[in-house]
Amino acid sequence: MAMKRQAYKSTSCSNFLCIRYSTILSLILVFTSFFLFLAQLRHVREPLLWAGQARFHGDLRDAKFPWNKLCFGPTFKKLKLAVFSKTWPVGAAPGGMERHASTLYHALAARGHEIHVFTVPSNRRPQHDIHEGNLHVYFAANDHGSVNCSLAFEIFNKINASGAFDYVHTESVSLPYWRAKFLPNLAVTWHGIWYEIMHSKLFQELLVNPNEALPGPMTELQEAIPRLIDEIRFFSSYRQHICISTSAGEVLVNIYQLPQRNIHVILNGVDDAKFVQEPEAGAALRRKHGVPVNASLVMGVAGRLVRDKGHPLLYEAFSSIIKRHPGVFLLVAGSGPWRRRYAELGSNVMVLGALEPSELSKFYNALDVFVNPTLRPQGLDLTLIEAMHCGKPVLAPNYPSIVGTVVVNEGLGYTFSPNVKSFVDVLELVIRDGPEVLKRKGMACKEYALSMFTANKMASAYERFFLCMKDTRYCQYPLLTDC
Q1: What is the phi/psi pair of residue 370, to 5°?
Q2: How far is CA 204 from the centre of its chain?
Q3: Per-residue pLDDT for 124 more than 90?
Q4: Phi, psi (5° rounding) for residue 82?
Q5: How far apart are CA 156 and CA 318, in angstroms?
Q6: Quick check: 430 and 438 in contact, CB under 8 A?
Q7: Which distant-in-sequence residues (6+ apart) come within 8 Å of 103 by Cβ?
Q8: pLDDT tens digit string along 238-288?
Q9: Which of 291, 353, 424, 467 could anchor a disulfide with 286, C-beta 3.0 to 4.6 Å?
Q10: pLDDT reading at 21 higher than 60
């Protein structure tokens, strides 16, 4: 009897423990599944969350993402900055570098900072210096129309003697490294590095000789590695490095072996008051240039019509497309050797010539999709972000600088490998998607561009960078004045 009672008691305890353990186990499984679900949801959603402030607290010099993602508040401290720039926009159709420089330094001057730019005019003609409020532009050209560093430094030293510059900034190698290494308070912004240029030369060779088993002399490619090694060696002559794409920043750390704390990513921005969505202006431009009202799709490309901008690639791909899709049209804004070749494609291609900056917004608005076929995987092409501000999706090669910074997901546009077959396949996809899908993607592009690629975002980030370099208190984020 005792044994029966004991057996019954043991069984009861065992059942009780089993029930309790199973309950605990079930709860653990439920909570584990819940947290795994949340983690998976976060993993899925994060790539789509481009807008808004990045979750960052700490020293800005440790940031491994673009400073444009942060929201910096107002500052009451004013800086005196010296800038060396390759060119300054003067006359018609300036390039991207000139437009970037003008946008950035006008914006910084408007914020109350004293800006002195040492440069040459983009049209290579004699030009009077410019003095507009806080912005001062000094033209110091040599006989070839490039910056005369000796003359520029004479002016620099004279202005510096009347009140020292807080910081010196050079756009790429406008200030050569053998002079830069003697300036302790110096930063350089790289709009292209030789590691990326080397890739550009590789893609161009493959495009020109796609089926050659043993191509002929490849002088540029053969010279690329020695030039890359030379560049890696002299980059340390510059104190602080600003990259305009996340991928370039990673290369400077991983390949060029520069200290992580000396590498900062600040993306280019454009004036979002000039590049805006205006469907009526786009429709007017279509009428002006005779685009049929029943066109099934209108694509566009802008920039210099030269080989390294990818025009051989676009020419071949579009030649194939119009044979199957006669309702598709291509608008070409720009001038250069490939203008005549495009004329060979007939009435489906309209070459508009070089457009004034004020006309570019209308051009983008006339498109269903903006195409950038560039063979130069370097920097951050302003035409892409200008088109996005105008509410247009973009189509570009899948270079790290583009997929990591601009077309960060499929909702913003399309990417392709830099060869004709891949390009044609993606163009077919664009045509299948049609204007309505392209319009939705264009709205997503506009939202993303406003969150990352505005002149205000860019100038705010540069302002905070220079303040941080002068006074480490400004390196902390967020400050009480930050958003």
Answers
A1: -100, 130
A2: 21
A3: no
A4: -105, 135
A5: 50
A6: yes
A7: 269, 270, 271, 455, 458
A8: 999 999 999 999 999 999 999 999 999 999 999 999 999 999 999 999 999
A9: 291
A10: no
Tokens matching residue 155: 């002016």
Cross-strand pairs, 114 = 80
- What fold does the segment set 58-271+456-477 form as a domain? Rossmann fold (3.40.50)
- Residue 449 contacts residue 394 (beta carbons within 8 Å): no
Query: Strand 130-132 and strand 135-139: pairing?
Result: antiparallel
CA–CA dist 40, 234 (Å, integer): 44
What's the rounded mean pLDDT across residues 108-131? 95
In order, the DSSP letters of 90-108 are -SSS--HHHHHHHHHHHHH
Number of residues that make up the chain? 483
Is 427:317 a contact under the CB 8 Å cutoff? yes
169 with 189: CB under 8 angstroms? Answer: yes
The helix/strand/coil state of 109 is helix
* 58-271+456-477 and 279-453 have identical folds: yes
Q: Is the pTM of this model over 0.70?
A: yes
For residue 249, give the 3-state DSSP assignment: helix
Decide: helix, strand or coil at residue 271: coil
Q: Can you read off the two tokens belonging to residue 183?
A: 């300036």
**Cα–Cα distance, 182 to 193 (Å, whole number):** 22
Instruction: Please name the amino acid found at residue 117.
Output: V
The topology (CATH level 3) of 279-453 is Rossmann fold (3.40.50)
* Residues 123, 127: Cα–Cα separation, whole Å: 9
Q: Tokens 């690329």 belong to which residue?
A: 224
How much is the pLDDT for 208?
75
> And the tokens for 190?
């790289």
Separation CA 110–CA 245 (nearest Å): 25
Q: Could you tell me how many helices (H) and strands (E) the chain has, helices first?
A: 15, 16
Which residues make Cβ contacts (< 8 Å) with residue 191, sequence separation at least 6?
97, 100, 171, 172, 244, 378, 379, 380
